[in-house]
Design goal:
With 121 residues, the chain is mostly helical. The protein is built from four helices and two strands. It starts with a helix and ends in a 7-residue tail after the last strand.
Length: 121
């Protein structure tokens, strides 16, 4: 990282979005991408699911991870993509914590499965 936390955070956030696009075939970004991939459509199934969604607990976890991912993009990807580096300060500790969160999201995306639902369902 060579002390360049800004770009390390931006690249990590972009990698989560890219993995989500790769798994779904969707082309949007950020919160819209998360909603399209994990939102419950008319058939009550998202395009990707973190579990079978068969219990209230599994549905709650799915919604929580969806919100966590949207928060991740809003907190780390959007500021780095739209603000100049000089005006958006990030500490080493914040960058390390963000990398841990990115790692969690990557792992959970690796485990997520396609449901057969289409984005427009």
């Amino acid at each position: 990282m060579e002390g360049n936390y800004f770009h390390a955070v931006l690249e990590a956030a972009k990698s989560v979005a890219q993995k989500l696009r790769d798994k779904t075939g969707l082309t949007s970004d950020g919160s819209e991408l998360v909603d399209e991939a994990f939102g419950i459509g008319k058939k009550a199934y998202p395009v990707l699911a973190f579990s079978s969604l068969s219990t209230n607990s599994e549905q709650s976890e799915h919604k929580g991870l969806t919100n966590l991912m949207k928060g991740f993009f809003g907190t780390f990807r959007n500021p780095t993509a739209h603000a100049p580096r000089i005006s958006w300060k990030i500490t080493e500790q914040d960058a390390l914590d963000m990398m841990s969160l990115a790692s969690l999201l990557h792992r959970r995306l690796d485990e997520a499965v396609r449901t057969g639902a289409q984005q427009s369902d």
